[in-house]
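Lay summary. Proteins are chains of building blocks that fold into shapes, and those shapes determine what they do. In this project we predict the shape from the chain. Here is one chain we studied, written as its sequence of building blocks.
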Amino acid sequence: MKPKGMVYLVGAGPGEVGMLTLRAAEVLARAEVVVAGEGVSPEVLALAPPTAEFIGAGSGGSPAAQSPEEVGRLLAASARAGKRVVRLIGGDPYLFGGGGEEAEWLAGARVPFEVVPGVSALVAGPNCAGFPLAHRQWASQITLLAGTEAPAAVDWAQVARAPGTRVIALAPERIGPTVELLAAQGMAPETPVAVVGPALRGRHHAWQGTLATIAGVVAREEIRPPAMLVIGGVVQLRARLNWFERRPLFGQRIAITRARAQAGELARQLRELGAEVLEVPTLRFEAPSRRQDLVDALLELNAYDWLVFTSPNGVTRFFEYFFRRFHDLRDLGGARLAAVGPGTASKLRELHLQVDLVPDEALGVEVARAFSQFESVENLKICLLRAEAANRDLPEALTALGAIVDDVACYQTVPETEDATGAAASLRERGADWVVFTSGSTVRNFHARFDLPALRRQFPQLKAAVIGPETARALAALGVAPACEARPHTLEGLVKVLLAAAAAK
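And here is the predicted shape, written in a compact code that computers can read:
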């Protein structure tokens, strides 16, 4: 019997995926239906299973303009079908997020629900801008306002008199009229004021002034919504406490083109360094079209002198098939193991396997040179375990040395065209500073989807970073030169060259 459905009203935080609570990430990872509110970031949506049904993110039908009753009916329909429904609401569901109204409707309709609190942008934005909302010297009281109400609905005299810190979420065009209202109620013109926006995104920034000057600051700067007004003495602490914008990759918008299952570690490192990361997978992995070749290789493992892996994914896919047939690593036989690149070697070592040879370069001639320096491969039988339709340089180079080479596909790559998280749409709309390529296939698939030269003409700041020479050659075929190439040819090498490029600006 299928379990009863459930609705989770989840605070999606201010946009930065690292600001999600553990409970939010846990619930999202098990979601069957995801209903995303306006402003939920693609990075957060990417935590949901790819099999989930997405509503309101990259597929139309956004609930942003719908009433709580309409959203409630949408949630209830899926819950009554026995599904786990995650309703993502920016910030905290109950703090100006509309979750209270939706919870009321669900309760009235007798639909079971759980509320997962989130980090509000009204707290996170000032925090990361260097404004502690509460401070023993400057503020023992906090006033929070949703600046969406009509001016007549707010007691501005009380706001003007309130001690401590006042935070008002409002559109940039309403900042001028709002400070005029506060001035008219007697707030001192020298009161420290700041505008923060958009909280914890790649373009996050804060602009300081006073009640008398902040409207002029807003008029000069291109401040996009969402924004918030921070008023009070804590604004003066920014010079010492502004940690967020001092991270080395802050302000850099970086698109990652790796398959979604492989992008996580690189995305994590870049975000930790302050970058805004767009996960735009250009490919996904599927079983090879001729699985029998791999089955035959598995049956003849004892006949091989070398097993050569060219990528971490090749390792993963080979052993998925290996353990379907065998139950003991000793069934690998006596073949020695070669791994092209340290990342591939590391993947083998995770299985507690000794790697006998690690060529640094993926180029066929360099791999062949590494083999020739290690031993003569004449008449040795080598099994290449790699992607389907990979280039012929490597098997030809090894054959030229006298080796007997079986080129066996463990997987194939196919273009990824779905955009469930909205990251691809965001890239088309706003561009990026960097696009990172980790293989020739990511280059070709990205170009087929976005037309890389045209995208660079639209966004002149867009630069390409590549993991190695083969990837660079794929770019060159499009008439594009990479701005930097990883040294060494690893994910860590990519991060290092991006850091170096940022430091050189």
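What the prediction tells us: Residues 57-62 have pLDDT under 50 and may be disordered.
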